[in-house]
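Weekly structure sync, notes
Attendees: PL (lead), two postdocs, one rotation student
Agenda item 3: pending single-chain targets
PL asked that the sequence for the first pending target be pasted directly into the notes so everyone works from the same version. It is reproduced below exactly as submitted, 203 residues in total.
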Amino acid sequence: LMTLQNVLLHVLNELGCSEKGMTLILNKIHSIAKSESLRNSALYDKYPAPQYIIDNIHTGIGGELLQLALWIPEIMEGLSSPVSEYNKALFDIGMALQALDDLCDMSEDFSASQVNLGISVLKYQYDTQYNPSVNPVAAAYPEMCKNYSYNCINTALTGFNKLSELGYPLSRNDSLVLLQYLFELRGIKDLWEISEFHKKKSK
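Predicted structure, written out during the meeting:
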């Protein structure tokens, strides 16, 4: 991590980034690293609630991580620049993708003793303990998976809509096509097909 930090500082210096800008970027990177470290379930006396996971883990490894590519131009151009608005859209998309990853990785995260949003939602919102021996997840917990995936899709569409409003050539139908492909790649095509968004996408 120190080697990466030194390389990054050198690059930022070459780009003419201010000392304040360098500090902001390093703080963001440390924030992501901290979020990743909080995934170890052994750190907690009881399983973390969904909102804790969203605020303290997914914000870093999901939203902020996807923003990484635009951090330097955003800080160098100023927080009021158009780049900042693009980064807000990326944050929403990153949060949606991380939540979807958790849904797909429930068994893997359970085995690795990693905190998982899907497991937490199941526990606190559906009063159900996750059973890793019951698969697939969508068949074992259909109502939870349907509502959970709906929230993921809706959050991602919020981000895609922000990009469209900023002039990025991405229609709502384009966004739905991208999300459908993502669901298929992650092996949860069945969840896409039972969502209301499946019906809204043009052929």
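Discussion points:
- The two ends are 47 Å apart (CA to CA).
- Residues 63 and 91 are 4 Å apart (CA to CA).
Action: rotation student to compare against the earlier draft before next sync.
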